[in-house]
């Protein structure tokens, strides 16, 4: 018995010992803000260039910026600059705003400040009061904070700060994380432990981790956070929870981060005892008005509501015979006097089985264009189905010119291998942002729609479903940190290059090590395409396991709704595979502008990445490569796995270059990813082979097990549901 107890406890003991041995510094806890010492020559020159700091602080925000600069200098080149109140002959870093530095505000370099807006910053090599200096300038202390982080990033990269001339302001106003965190601390589609919000001990105990969370977000320009799941519990709107949310808001405020809440549309019934939640009912309006006023008493700078309504069983205005616009405007009117916004999600599909789920949001929302009040933003997922490994951009982008639209990306990897697979999402985000909607002729990219430059919408926003949790490294997979990072950077500048961002992340995270970046950057850049290939190549989608969404499940059928099954989407049969969304099929393609339609309409010309998204084609369809469709499909599946094999080899080459704990963790996760990629490939190839009746092309190899083996696999207690 004793032996059994010991053997049962052994893993726990080992975990505890390992946990103690693995300090936060070694674990990835410090994210991209780990200020590792730079090379000696760089340190020497930075010590001279940054010997003195002239930085008069005015509030909590610029005080944070100052401390961050001091910590960074100390870590990067081992020197804390002398704090001065007059500019030195040389080697002074000047930081502030025209009002914090009134004696200098007439200097030429301050002329840039006019272009920075309330959040932008500038970093310059300049002559101030006749002396050479480096300057971080902004209009506000928030801008100063963002400027400080940008300057630190330059140092982490070992940039030449003798000639810097950077002016940067965010292209999108509201840059938010959406937490799908439940009040019991489980996280829907969360793969990095439990929710960061310790509701039980709030508001009394403010975990220092809340500060670290805010710091990480501020460092990449995120300025808002929706604390709770869109599948919302109305309790979050009760005084007990508002007090807790207010405590979080207090911690986040100096970092420039506003708190938002997901609101349950039926809250007036559940909390207020009203007989209905009809948005046109005066009592319902009054209830929301009072509730919102109460929220602002707790959180004076509350950002507003995020709402999932009439979607996947959530209550909404349609329950009362009203439209999404009626519902959104109800909340918007309550928020308006306080300056809050409503982010109303367009992720909707009919309760009855739709003919093509991809068409639903467009069909429901386009007729409402122009009806939303001016503090409503319609939040649209990047693609028309649901965060699949690859989707074409959502046809709503560009199709509602009289409404404010925002982007919703998913950072957590619900459909991309959870926190087990190394998949860099900067490329996915960028692919959507750069896609041309042609809504206003050429160069009408999705980025131009959401940054308001095409529509002139005053409120612009972008959200990412968070991948954070209580895991010591925040995101589960060490490389999943890069996805949080890339989201923030692209939210600030949707035109930024995903490769440059990955390069920054690597240098800031692992140290400014050229050979390491040279090896790992291509690996990151190929990783998403690899996942697409071993999961859903050539435009296939929604092939994952039932409900938990883990692993392959192309055979999923016979569920309560056809559009929750895989067979609904791939439509494989003896005659071919793919979803015909052209005029001969569901005609979802007609929801796009003519130039986009022309791009996808003809299977001979359709980019292969989207082929089976838009077309149902015979197995022997001739691809541009000369292969048959079946051969091309097999080859992509095998290529995907082969890429993961190369990623493993690349990582092995970094032994000794990254700390041992992270090295081992990534190595082991890549091994799991490889196994899972093989399983995806083999399960899908065997499943589709039943219909194609064709052999796997020579030289690719053959699955180890028969199809039934994969179909019978069961997984219990999969995280995230
Ligand atoms: C929060 C998908 C996910 C759900 C999620 C939903 C949504 O269906 O599987 O977990 O619910 O999207 O975005 O609302």
TrEMBL record:
InterPro entries in the record: A-glucoronidase_C_sf, GH, Glyco_hydro_67_aGlcAse, Glyco_hydro_67_aGlcAse_N, Glyco_hydro_67_C, Glyco_hydro_67_cat, Hex-like_dom2
Family matches, as Pfam families: Glyco_hydro_67C, Glyco_hydro_67M, Glyco_hydro_67N
Annotated active site: 312, 386, 414
Residues of the Alpha glucuronidase N-terminal domain: 31-150
Domain Glycosyl hydrolase family 67 catalytic stretches: 155-474
Keyword vocabulary terms for this entry: Carbohydrate metabolism, Glycosidase, Hydrolase, Polysaccharide degradation, Xylan degradation
Top enzyme class: hydrolase
Record-annotated Glycosyl hydrolase family 67 C-terminal domain positions: 475-699
Keyword NADP found: no
Alphabetical GO biological process terms: glucuronoxylan catabolic process
Catalytic activity: Hydrolysis of (1->2)-alpha-D-(4-O-methyl)glucuronosyl links in the main chain of hardwood xylans
Listed EC numbers: 3.2.1.131
MF-aspect GO terms: alpha-glucuronidase activity; xylan alpha-1,2-glucuronosidase activity
GO cellular component: extracellular region
Subunit structure: Homodimer.
Protein family per UniProt: Belongs to the glycosyl hydrolase 67 family.
Protein name (database record): Xylan alpha-1,2-glucuronidase
């Amino acid at each position: 018995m004793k032996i059994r107890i010991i053997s049962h406890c052994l893993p726990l003991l080992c975990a505890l010992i390992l946990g103690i041995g693995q300090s936060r510094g070694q674990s990835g806890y410090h994210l991209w803000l780990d200020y590792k010492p730079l090379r000696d020559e760089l340190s020497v020159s930075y010590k001279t260039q940054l010997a003195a700091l002239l930085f008069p602080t005015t509030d909590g925000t610029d005080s944070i910026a100052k401390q961050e600069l001091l910590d960074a200098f100390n870590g990067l080149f081992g020197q804390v600059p002398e704090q001065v109140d007059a500019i030195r002959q040389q080697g002074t870093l000047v930081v502030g705003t025209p009002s914090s530095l009134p004696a200098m505000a007439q200097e030429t370099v301050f002329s840039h400040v006019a272009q920075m807006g309330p959040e932008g910053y500038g970093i310059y090599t300049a002559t101030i009061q006749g002396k050479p200096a480096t300057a971080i300038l902004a209009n506000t202390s928030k801008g100063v904070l963002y400027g400080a982080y940008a300057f630190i990033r330059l140092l982490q990269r070992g940039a030449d700060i003798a000639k810097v001339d950077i002016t940067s302001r965010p292209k999108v106003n509201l840059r938010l994380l959406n937490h799908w965190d439940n009040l019991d601390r489980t996280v829907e589609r969360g793969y990095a432990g439990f929710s960061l919000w310790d509701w039980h001990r709030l508001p009394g105990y403010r975990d220092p981790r809340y500060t670290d969370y805010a710091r990480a977000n501020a460092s990449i320009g995120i300025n808002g956070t929706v604390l709770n799941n869109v599948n919302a519990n109305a309790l979050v709107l009760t005084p007990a929870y508002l007090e807790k949310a207010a405590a979080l808001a207090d911690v986040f405020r100096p970092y420039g981060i506003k708190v938002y809440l997901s609101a349950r549309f039926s809250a007036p019934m559940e909390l207020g005892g009203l007989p209905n939640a009809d948005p046109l009912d005066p009592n319902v309006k009054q209830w929301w008005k009072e509730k919102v006023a109460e929220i602002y008493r707790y959180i004076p700078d509350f950002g507003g509501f995020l709402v999932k309504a009439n979607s996947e069983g959530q209550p909404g205005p349609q329950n009362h015979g009203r439209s999404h616009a009626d519902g959104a405007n109800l909340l918007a009117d309550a928020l308006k006097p306080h300056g809050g916004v409503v982010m109303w999600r367009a992720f909707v599909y009919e309760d009855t089985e739709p003919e093509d789920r991809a068409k639903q949001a467009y069909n429901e929302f386009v007729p409402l264009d122009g009806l939303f009040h001016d503090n409503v933003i319609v939040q649209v997922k990047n693609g028309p189905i649901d965060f699949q490994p690859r989707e074409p951009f959502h046809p709503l982008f560009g199709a509602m010119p009289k409404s404010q639209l925002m982007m919703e990306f998913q950072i957590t990897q619900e459909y991309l291998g959870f926190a087990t697979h190394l998949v860099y999402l900067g490329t996915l985000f960028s692919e959507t942002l750069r896609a041309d909607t042609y809504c206003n002729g050429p160069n009408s990219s999705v980025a131009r729609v959401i940054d308001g430059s095409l529509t002139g919408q005053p409120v612009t926003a972008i959200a990412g479903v968070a991948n954070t949790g209580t895991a010591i490294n925040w995101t589960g997979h060490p490389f999943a940190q890069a996805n949080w990072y890339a989201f923030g950077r692209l939210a600030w500048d949707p035109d930024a290059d995903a490769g440059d961002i990955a390069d920054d992340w690597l240098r800031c995270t692992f140290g400014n090590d050229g050979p390491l970046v040279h090896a790992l950057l291509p690996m990151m850049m190929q990783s998403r395409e690899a996942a697409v290939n071993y999961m859903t190549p050539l435009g296939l989608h929604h092939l994952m396991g039932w409900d938990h969404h883990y692993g392959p499940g192309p055979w999923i059928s016979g569920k309560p709704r056809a559009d929750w099954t895989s067979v609904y989407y791939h439509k494989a049969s003896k005659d071919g595979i793919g979803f015909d969304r052209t005029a001969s099929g569901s005609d979802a393609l007609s929801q796009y502008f003519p130039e986009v339609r022309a791009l996808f309409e003809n299977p001979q010309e359709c980019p292969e990445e989207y082929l089976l998204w838009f077309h149902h084609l015979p197995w022997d369809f001739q691809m541009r490569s000369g292969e048959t469709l079946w051969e091309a499909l097999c080859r992509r599946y095998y290529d995907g796995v082969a890429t993961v094999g190369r990623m493993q080899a690349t990582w092995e080459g970094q032994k000794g270059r990254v700390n041992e704990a992270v090295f081992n963790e990534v190595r082991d996760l890549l091994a799991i990813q490889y196994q899972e990629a093989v399983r995806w490939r083999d399960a899908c190839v065997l499943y589709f082979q039943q219909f194609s009746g064709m052999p796997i092309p020579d030289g690719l190899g053959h699955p180890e097990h028969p199809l039934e083996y994969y179909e019978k696999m069961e997984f219990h207690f999969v995280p995230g549901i």
